[in-house]
TrEMBL record:
It comes from Urochloa decumbens. PANTHER family: LECITHIN-CHOLESTEROL ACYLTRANSFERASE-RELATED. It comes from the Eukaryota. Signal peptide: none annotated. Pfam families: LCAT. SUPFAM superfamilies: alpha/beta-Hydrolases (SSF53474). This is Lecithin-cholesterol acyltransferase-like 1.
């Protein structure tokens, strides 16, 4: 096989680590939460966060929160809290945060790539990100993502130079697939043509949205952020402060007026998300949702590079949430449809139609659907990994 095209991995939503540093401007709610003020960087979101005691978890919830600045139209940390994502550039800088599933977060895929001859820091690289923020569409303010995209640009350019000028394969899973897609869409066309060999997105949580994300919004992120010692109401309030909480919500152009949340007093479709935010107690998220996320729901620009989109199908996937008692602290009854257990089939098909079939893209777009392979299993299942690796091998032959 000729020299390998470098690969840059974008992991799923909760895979990247976060570190924090507390300055004098930080005003903790309790003395315990201020113990690390002025003592340098410490792990905030790591593969040990799940083991925190209740007091530590309370500080975690406080220090993870974001604030929306309506003047700048952008999110930021709490005053006095500085954060960073460690290990940028390394494919070994992110790992599963769920002890029951150590294979998550592209670990199995990384091992398969190493078997093929890829080596971390030489031909294999990682682009971890701060999962609390969402990538912007062109023209939107995002201090965090402006810096992040610049770093990814330099990473890919350096990876190409290290590998005989070969353009890079950009590969992302789940939310990482959406981040990878937005990076490529935001890049200038001449740069894309020079440095991007192929965009490979696996189960991307794109702006068409999916219904399951409403579960985290309404009832809390227990299914996403595994912090058993933190009370669920506190975790839900923290989640509402993230931009991530209002991205990937069902888009009207995809889901129409069919109810996605059903309560005793009112039903909510994709057109009623702002009202739903108020109803569940997250009125503070309405303004950023309207100012930042609504426009993304109709932004379908194709990346205009060679692209593969891989999804699982044929698995029961949340289609409607039913809260009979209007008690959002209790889990809903779920009505299921088709999808990969997370992303609805209707959203996958919409992506193919409105993005994959655009003139100039459709000739360079490939869709792969795997029956009975779930959202997370698409990068751990032996069959799915073989298909990904076959695609990588073929790309390296070209």
């Amino acid at each position: 096989m000729p020299p390998l095209h470098p690969i840059v991995l974008f992991p799923g939503l909760i895979c990247s680590d976060l570190e924090a540093r507390l300055t004098d401007a930080y005003q903790p709610s309790t003395p315990r939460c201020g113990k690390l003020k002025g003592k340098g960087w410490f792990g905030l979101w790591t593969n040990r966060t799940w083991a925190m005691d209740p007091d530590q978890a309370a500080c975690f919830v406080e220090q993870m929160r974001l604030v929306y600045d309506p003047v700048l139209g952008d999110y930021r940390n709490l005053p006095g809290v500085q954060t960073r994502v460690p290990g940028f550039g390394s494919a070994r800088s992110f790992a599963s945060k769920v002890p029951q599933h150590p294979e998550y977060c592209l670990g199995a895929l990384r091992s398969a790539l190493e078997t093929l001859g890829y080596r971390d820091g030489e031909t294999l690289f990682g682009a971890p990100y701060d999962f609390r923020y969402a990538p912007p569409m062109p023209g939107q303010a995002s201090r965090v993502y402006s810096r992040y995209f610049r770093r990814v640009t330099r990473l890919i350019e350096d990876a190409s130079r290290k590998n005989h000028g070969k353009p890079a394969i950009v590969l992302g899973h789940s939310y990482g697939g959406a981040v990878a897609l937005e990076f490529v869409r935001n890049a200038p066309p001449p740069w894309r043509d020079t440095f991007i060999k192929h965009l490979f997105i696996v189960a991307p949580t794109w702006s068409g949205g999916y219904v399951r994300t409403l579960t985290s919004l309404v009832s809390g992120p227990a299914g996403l952020l595994y912090v058993p010692s933190a009370p669920q109401p506190a975790m839900r309030s923290m989640w509402w402060s993230f931009e991530t909480s209002v991205v990937n919500l069902p888009a009207p152009v995809v889901f129409g007026r069919r109810p996605v949340v059903i309560t005793r007093h009112r039903n909510y479709s994709a057109y009623d998300i702002a009202d739903l935010l108020v109803t569940v107690g997250s009125a503070g998220a309405v303004r950023p949702f309207r100012e930042r996320e609504v426009a993304k729901m109709e932004y379908f620009k194709a990346p205009m590079v060679s692209m593969t989109c891989m999804n699982g199908v044929g698995i029961p996937t949340t289609e409607q949430l039913v809260y009979e008692e209007d008690n959002f602290d209790r889990g809903p009854e779920v009505v299921y449809g088709d999808g990969d257990d997370t992303i609805n089939l209707i959203s996958m098909l919409a992506f193919e139609e409105v993005v994959g079939k655009q003139p100039g893209q459709k000739e360079r777009f490939k869709s792969i659907k795997l029956a009975k392979v779930g959202h997370s299993e698409l990068v751990t299942n032996e069959w799915a990994l073989k298909i990904i690796m076959d695609e990588i091998v073929e790309l390296n032959r070209c």
